[in-house]
């Protein structure tokens, strides 16, 4: 059986949990669309996150890779459209690193596009009553870092598709007034994203951009 | 079997759906805590909403009444703490009425407190991973209007408890970036609120206020 | 010359500044509409805030009192419509007090209305390009506490008008993405509120409510 | 005297004003840092916006170009870090065009970095009590389109610097609860951005990224 890799991140920024970690754990071993999901947790550390991810690419030869990360404050499940070649850390990572305006890959392109069908994923989630929208920025912290590193690793392997999806806080993390989603809703969302990605060759042509 | 009344509202403000309407419909007939839930839809019309509600109080003699309404833009299920004695409509209601600074009950008190265990409800929802928080304002439109009218009707009936809970948009209603929750999560939330209200005599003493 | 009292609050909640404190300081001694502004700083402490405020009412016999407080996260200058009779502290005040669901005035009414022309103030601010809107809740912390205490003190003195206005963070306080306003804009806003209150006997009849 | 070009946009999306248009008008003819500011208004039309902009580059040979656009809902003045090579229109532009996932420049790079000192600009604004933060996405509508077109035009002219800054709604545009800033604050902000860009060769090395 072929493999799909779903990565989450360990908690960071003073949080004790990270919904992306729980998602990767819960999906690990599940079979979706005839593939086995390998769920793994990446360290929230610049450099190390990419190294571990590259190790899993070698170990499991996945045909599809979906990185998942926590975007506290967002209201929706957000497939990311683009990864940009910069680390600019507003807070320290879990190893105390805080790079400022550093290229992730020296002389790498300014950005890589996701090769996931981000619009089909968003549409499929909304059809299941799960809040979803395409995002135009994965930030400049370890999530974007791993996402860029992934797309750089895949740049010459067009048949292996990959990308990144941000998820909101879980309810226990949200402060009063902040959006959040039940964890089980988020697990279902990422399982759906895997299924949609496996069966969708051409993304939908519908507006999912934003004015600003 | 004793009755519990759960009211929702018809769509308003240009929307074609209203999650509170769906919640009332789906809970209608369900048995919770040994009581039968009567689910009814109120018109989003000043005056008429209270008149219909009062009719249901007579018809069903419920021992517990939970009004439910849509609070587009909120991120959480929000049991309301207080109803205030003013109609101040930013938009027209479904009959075209748009009262400005009009008392709901002439010479009525400035405000009535909910008699639901609002903090126990919020805590029970969060324990189920459902975003929830106590709200300090139900607005000044038809939701607050019906809530005030309900508490006025119950003011001399301390054994009948009542209150109001606002729910977020459903995903189909939310604009990009706006919070929403799956409808089934919201139905479960209100069912939980009914159960908690029935079994809770004294509310929790935990901070659920807000700084501003 | 008659007096107008404008109160601000000392910093709280871990902040080192409070725009309301700066506003009261900067307006202290200014003459607006033929009255002298007395600017004073209240402690962010339940009980003590009302006691100090009552002392100023005796000392200065103001004909108009505007309490000002910080509402971190709000985007607008918000004249408050109503004060409610409850302390429910999500965080400790500056004396370590954290009351839960305690009446501010035992057997006091559930709420008092502001006697400021809140809509005329909001309209005048917007005419000056200053973001403004009427608010339906002053929260349940020390701001609402002082506001309720003020209106309770004025309840039998209809010729003395009073109320409360919340202001956003100043830019130095706001986290990335949070709204804020330049301090000078906020000082101008409160000066304008004083002037409008002095010259306005009947508030505007325009919709300033909210749906929820 | 050398020239600086500041562009704004005409109103779009049903608005009757656009603060960026007013900013360009008010700065037109002003002298900042020994340069004359040329303020021009671009059409909010895909294609035509870049064509007009390129015409101004030829006509005025500016050494610095700052595009300005309206980002309704944002709370801060936001210098943009990066332009991406895609048009994905959620709404129609002013000519009725609504491209979906179309490259702005065929075979152009996925993204261009701003060559403005975006962090020095944000820091200078905050020092003036003006809300400001670096943004990681200019969206996928006409603002990003013009920004990408500008950086493409400048790609082989390293001595001419350019970039884009989004500004919030003006107060008259904002709905209740939405952030906005007084127009004069925004005019001062862009004038400051021009001055800072002219005198800053190396941007500050401070964290201005975002986690997500």
How would you describe this structure to a colleague?
Four copies of one chain form a homotetramer. Chain A has a single domain (3-210), classed as Aminopeptidase (3-Layer(aba) Sandwich), CATH 3.40.630.20. In chain A, helix 1 crosses helix 5, helix 2 (48-60) packs parallel to helix 4 (142-153) and helix 3 crosses helix 5. The longest helix of chain A is centred in the C-terminal third of the chain and has 17 residues, at 183-199. Chain A has helices at 19-27, 48-60, 118-127, 142-153, 183-199, and strands at residues 3-9, 31-32, 35-42, 64-70, 78-79, 82-84, 111-113, 161-167. The model of chain A has no long low-confidence stretch (mean pLDDT 97). The radius of gyration of chain A is 16 Å and the shape is globular. In chain A, strands 2-3-1-4-8-5 form a six-stranded mixed β-sheet, with helices on both faces. Chain A is an alpha/beta fold. The interface between A and C is small, with 4 and 4 residues.
Question: TL;DR?
Answer:
Chain A is of the alpha/beta class. Helices cover 29% and strands 18% of the residues of chain A.
How many separate helices of chain A? Answer: 5
What is the oligomer described by this structure?
homotetramer
Strand content of chain A: 15-25%
Q: What are the segments of chain A in which pLDDT stays under 50 over at least 5 consecutive residues?
A: none
Nearest-integer average pLDDT of chain A: 97
Helix and strand succession of chain A? EHEEHEEEEHHEH
Kindly identify the CATH topology of chain A.
Answer: Aminopeptidase
> Can you tell me the number of structural domains of chain A?
1
What's the overall geometry of chain A?
globular
CATH architecture of chain A: 3-Layer(aba) Sandwich
Cα-based radius of gyration of chain A, to the nearest Å: 16 Å
Structural class of chain A, by secondary structure, is alpha/beta
Within CATH, the superfamily of chain A carries the name Peptidase C15, pyroglutamyl peptidase I-like
The largest interface is: A-D, 41 and 41 residues
């Amino acid at each position: 059986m072929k493999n799909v890799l779903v990565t989450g991140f360990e908690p960071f920024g003073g949080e004790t949990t990270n919904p992306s970690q729980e998602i990767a754990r819960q999906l690990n071993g599940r079979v979706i669309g005839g593939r086995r999901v390998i769920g793994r947790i990446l360290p929230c550390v610049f450099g190390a996150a990419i190294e571990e991810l590259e190790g899993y690419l070698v170990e499991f030869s996945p045909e599809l890779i979906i990185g998942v990360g926590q975007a506290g404050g967002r209201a929706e499940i957000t497939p990311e459209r683009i990864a940009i070649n910069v680390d600019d850390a507003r807070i320290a990572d879990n190893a105390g690193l805080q790079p400022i305006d550093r290229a992730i890959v020296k002389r790498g392109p300014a950005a890589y596009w996701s090769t996931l069908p981000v619009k089909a994923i968003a549409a499929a989630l909304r059809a299941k009553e799960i809040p979803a929208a395409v995002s135009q920025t994965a930030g400049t912290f370890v999530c974007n870092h791993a996402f860029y590193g992934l797309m750089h690793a895949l740049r010459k392997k067009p048949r292996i598709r990959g990308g990144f999806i941000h998820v909101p806080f879980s309810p226990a993390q949200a402060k009063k007034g902040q959006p959040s989603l039940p964890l089980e809703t988020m697990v279902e969302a990422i399982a759906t994203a895997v299924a949609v990605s496996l069966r969708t060759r051409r993304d939908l042509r519908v507006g999912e951009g934003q004015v600003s």
